[in-house]
Specification:
- α4 packs across α9.
- The chain is mainly alpha-helical.
- The termini are far apart.
- It folds into two domains: about 100 residues, STAS domain (Transcription Regulator spoIIAA, 2-Layer Sandwich); about 250 residues, no CATH class.
- The protein is about 70% helix and about 5% strand.
Length: about 375
């Protein structure tokens, strides 16, 4: 009949299917052809005996094909003749396996699809708000435990994270702020020249850099640079089950991992915002001298008159709140990593996007609040 299957009949007119050789995945194609060629004879037979005593090797593929043969035959349900113990065990497991049928794909209704997407988005946002508050509660609890002496003060970890997140970000934040400050000044001078008021560029540059642009650029750069790193670190630890190992050792992961990073963001982001604002003013001075013909000493005198402590504090007050939001979102997205590299990449991207969005929204809310209180 074939290379792996031979057919014969007994005195009682029973059909005997003798299987031999290696019924493994390496011979899957030839085995499938032999099984397919045998099935018509099995359908005509009233009683079938499948003899597998001559099979040398059997794996899952071979067991599935043998089960297919037995189910095509009309013989008794007692199993296979001549099966060894390990072969019989594998065949029984394959025979008892009954995979659930996949549900038929449903066609999406074009009318209800936008409402479905909106509902899922709203529910997802509600879940994120709940998760953020839960994470904040854990961090506040860990901070409280440290303050009352019931948990160790991880000063070395805080200093390391401060260096990684804040100090090493100073060059890139200063460079970006300098370029943005130069661009804003150049465009402002171009418009103010029409009114003969180029000197007012000093007031505009100072207010923008210290109240808005400096802290916003610093927060966005930290969200993209350090927020993604925090999510990736926590996510990779989730994948390697290091969180479970910490809990087994009696160490709170929020206390050991997330609290130092979040505190470094809260404490260090005002410093980074101030450095960015000063770099932006340096770019403004440079462009005002080259493009607007405003001498440096005149710029400095005008800046001294235009700047107030209120403008400086307005920007610095925002920074700790933005640092807290970045730390919460980065930690939360890291905790959502499920155990695959795809999940890690998706959560890291989500962390950066959400952090930048929340930082911009928070800046807008602060601007409205400052305008309402006259600050």
């Amino acid at each position: 009949m074939g290379r792996y299957i031979e057919l014969s009949t007994t005195q009682d007119s029973d059909l005997v299917v003798r299987c031999s050789g290696d019924w493994t995945s390496a011979n899957a194609r030839a085995l499938e052809l032999d099984v397919a060629a045998t099935e018509p004879s099995l359908a005509k037979s009233t009683n079938t005996v499948i003899d597998i005593a001559a099979i040398d090797a059997l794996d899952t593929i071979g067991a599935w094909l043998l089960t297919r043969l037995r189910r095509q035959g009309a013989g008794p349900s007692g199993g296979f003749a001549g099966a060894s113990g390990k072969h019989q065990s594998l065949l029984e497991r394959i025979d008892n396996y009954d995979p659930e049928e996949a549900p038929a794909p449903t066609r999406e209704n074009w009318f209800t699809a936008p409402f479905d997407t909106l509902g899922r988005t709203i529910m997802g946002g509600s879940g994120d708000i709940y998760a953020i508050n839960t994470t904040l509660g854990h961090l506040l609890s860990a901070f409280g435990q440290t303050m009352i002496g019931r948990a160790p003060l991880r000063l070395a970890s805080f200093v390391q994270q401060f260096e990684q997140i804040i100090l090493r970000a100073i060059p890139i934040v200063a460079l970006i702020s300098l370029v943005v400050g130069a661009i804003i000044t150049q465009q402002t001078i171009l418009q103010l020249r029409n009114f003969g008021a180029s000197i007012l560029v000093v007031d505009l540059a100072a207010i923008l850099m210290f109240r808005e642009i400096g802290v916003l650029l610093a927060a966005i750069m930290v969200a993209g640079r350090s927020g993604s790193a925090i999510t990736a670190e926590i996510g990779s630890m989730r994948i390697r089950e290091e969180f479970d190992a910490l809990r087994v050792m009696g160490v709170d992961p929020y206390q050991a991992l997330m609290l130092p990073r979040t505190l470094a963001l809260i404490v260090g982001l005002p410093l980074l915002a101030f450095v960015g604002s000063m770099a932006g003013m340096a770019g403004a001075i440079l462009v005002a001298r080259v493009y607007g013909d405003i001498p440096v000493d005149v710029f400095i005198i005008r800046l001294r008159d235009a700047m107030t402590m209120t403008s400086i504090m307005a920007g610095l007050i925002k920074a700790p709140f933005m640092g807290l939001l970045i730390g919460l979102l980065a930690s939360l997205e890291g905790m959502k990593v499920q155990g695959s590299s795809e999940s890690l990449g998706r959560r890291t991207t989500s962390s950066v996007v959400k952090a930048i969005f929340v930082v911009i929204v928070a800046d807008g809310l602060f601007a409205v609040f400052y305008a309402a209180i006259g600050f």
